[in-house]
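Suppose you are handed a protein chain with no further information: no name, no annotation, nothing but its sequence. What can you learn? This example shows the usual starting point.
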Amino acid sequence: MSGPALDAVLEGYLAYLTDVRRQTGHTVTDVRCTLRRVSRAMAELRPGAALWELRLEDYIRWLERERRGPGSGASLPKYLSHLRGLLDYVWRSGRSDRNVLDGFTLQDDGRRRLPRALDVEEARRLVTACPQHTRDERQERAMILLLYGCGLRTGELCRLDVANVDRERREVHVLHGKGDRQRVVPIPDGVFTALLAWLLERGGRRGPLFRTAVRRRRLDCSYVCDVVARAAARAGLSAAVTPKVLRHSYATHLMDRGVDLAVIASLMGHRSPAETGVYLHVLGDRPRQAVDRLARRSGGAS
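A reasonable first move is to predict its three-dimensional structure. Written in structure tokens, the prediction is:
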């Protein structure tokens, strides 16, 4: 759902992204969320001023407020990119005389929040705490196994169809990833066994892989979040466990086992290994230890 309409100029920019720039629906929705977020904040900081009428100082005040807020500062560069695109559009259409964010970037202050992830024992407890007595319970267990075992995003899980599971190659085909990027993810043996059992029980060759008990409709993201939260509660884990935490756990555990960064980036559906660099914290001192071993073997020669 896109929510209430924005200012006419902002709606015009979103239409431009769709019709002229040919941006995906997911991207346009993401930009819409940013513009709505900033508009609400600026209504308090600069009441009555349109986004293209604000000064650079106004945006800096907003950024500082965002940094102090409860959310992750990792999203700020994305917000700036969306705003820079809007202001460039407004400038080119003659509604303003400059783009005040042109050339403005954020410097990394080293305080980036590390992604929350379960350790291996916590992940085992989460899966073990999933009952399998009823059809719905078996479906929910298969959902959690896919989120953790394949690193899927919540929306990706919801959009999976039966046809997206390749039983012969033991792979799941993600056709609607972030930015509409597609990828193929191998299914671990334990996950595949549970998934195959669910496929046999579900029956049928078409339609959503996971469906609601009533009317058999495709799941939405809030349903998946509730499933994970209930499983975490049964396992005695923090209430902060979400589907995203399971995705982070997947990447963290792969990194911890020495899987190449480029491979993890591909499995996660990242645009480049640079996006996956946030998980490097799990390596601890191992890069330094590797360099020290190399130096000892070479006798310290340059």
